[in-house]
Specification:
Largest sheet: 6 strands, mixed
Number of helices: 20
CATH superfamily of the largest domain: Glutaredoxin
CATH topology of the largest domain: Glutaredoxin
Number of domains: 3
Low-confidence stretches: 1-26
CATH class of the largest domain: Alpha Beta
Mean pLDDT: 85
Strand order of the largest sheet: 1-2-4-3-5-6
Structural class: alpha/beta
């Protein structure tokens, strides 16, 4: 559905408190719109900031936040006191805010003034309606920053969609690798467009060493212009690319290079990022003993999602029978009272990979039932079930 033709694009969530005065009711209400111009007009008329909520239709955490917010009148009041909320799906980018603000993970929230001067950004892992401390802190700090006009000057306030800048955004939105690389050669290096190209290149894994060297050597300038949070985001993407290259080639030398980059530029998050990729690296080297030791030390077996993610990785990438049996035992424990489509699916596929076809048949049938309940696509499960039945016949 087009954003501009969505009948629900402009929603008022009111917190009703007895016989409040009109001015108090306005302060307590949260305006949510999907229209950029409406957000700007409402923010201008009320003196509020704009909180852009970037989401996609497939983003589970985005849906969880929306549902939680609709039920949480206290959070509606907290946000509505100082903000108009602009919900924006970059995959339906009629106005290319996604590229303008370099959005590649969801949900992400960006605060701008009513004339779209950039204030700050908060990434998805910290946007939780049931654990709102990070979000509330971000909202409060953004109000303080805006009140002292501490805007990030690297972002333009240009919203003329016929302008050259916006035509450039549309060209790069689905850019291929060549366009990104050529753009990085010719664009002015301290503009939001250049940083967009750089971010896009990091996402694609196509940045050249000279691009990375220039960015890291001018890190402070980019932070002043665009905010530390996005500079750190680009650096994390670069480190991810380095780890992926090491994993792809099973190279100890490239692994050390990725570690050195992280230690130099990402001291706060380096350990976490390294551990996130260490399992894939050890699997790529087929160092099964080290894989088992790593999993035994690091996996939180009380966290069903963490166990499921590790078990899925082993299903996809590991052929060591002992490790696959270990994953099966962990999933068997996880499923006691914690069944859903993703977890049952992982368990069934592990059984299939180990050749336990009768058990796998029962579990995959159950995964299809869960998929139907959760309205998930189960075509691959149907295909696998057919393969299992053929093996049993």
């Amino acid at each position: 559905m087009s954003i501009l033709h969505n009948p629900l694009k402009y929603i008022f969530l009111f917190l009703v408190v007895g016989c409040t005065l009109k001015t108090h009711a306005q302060e307590a209400s949260l305006v949510i719109t999907k229209d950029v111009e409406e957000a700007r007009q409402v923010a201008s008329s009320t003196g509020k900031l704009i909180l852009i909520d970037f989401y996609t239709d497939w983003c589970g955490p985005c849906k969880k936040f929306d549902k939680g917010l609709s039920l949480d009148t206290a959070m509606q009041r907290t946000i509505g006191k100082n903000y108009v909320m602009l919900k924006h799906n970059p995959e339906k980018d009629l106005v290319p805010l996604g590229f303008k603000y370099h959005i590649y993970s969801f949900p992400t929230m960006v605060v701008v003034s009513n004339d779209f001067q950039y204030v700050g950004k908060l990434y998805g892992g910290k946007i939780k309606i049931d654990q709102p401390s990070d979000l509330i802190s971000f909202l409060e700090k953004s109000v303080e920053r805006a009140s002292t006009s501490k805007f990030r000057r690297g972002y333009s306030t240009d919203f003329d969609t016929t302008s050259a800048l916006y035509r450039s955004y549309r060209r790069i939105k689905r850019a291929d690798t060549t366009l990104v690389i050529e753009g990085l050669k010719t664009e002015s290096r301290f503009t939001e467009y250049y940083l967009g190209l750089l971010t896009h290149g990091a996402v694609l894994g196509t940045l050249k060493p000279n691009n990375i060297d220039f960015f890291t050597s001018n890190r402070n300038t980019y932070s002043d212009l665009f905010g530390e949070e996005h500079v750190d985001y680009v650096l994390r993407l670069v480190q991810y690319d380095l780890y992926v290259a090491a994993i792809k080639k099973g190279s100890s030398e490239l692994w050390k290079k990725a570690n050195a980059f992280g230690k130099t530029y990402l001291s706060d998050s380096y350990d976490r990022i390294r551990e996130a990729y260490k399992l894939d690296y050890l699997i790529a080297k087929k160092d099964w003993k080290s894989v088992k030791d790593h999993l035994t030390k690091t996996v939180d077996k009380s966290d069903p999602d963490e166990v499921n993610n590790c078990a899925w990785t082993l299903y996809m990438k590991c052929d060591d029978r002992e490790l696959l049996e270990l994953a099966v035992s962990w999933m068997n424990d996880v499923l006691k009272g914690n069944e859903n489509y993703a977890r049952v699916d992982t368990y069934g596929r592990l059984l299939y990979k180990l050749g336990h076809y009768q058990e796998a048949k029962t579990v995959i049938e159950k995964s299809i039932e869960y998929a139907k309940r959760e309205k998930m696509d189960h075509a691959s499960n149907d295909k696998l079930l057919e393969e299992i039945r053929n093996k049993l016949n």
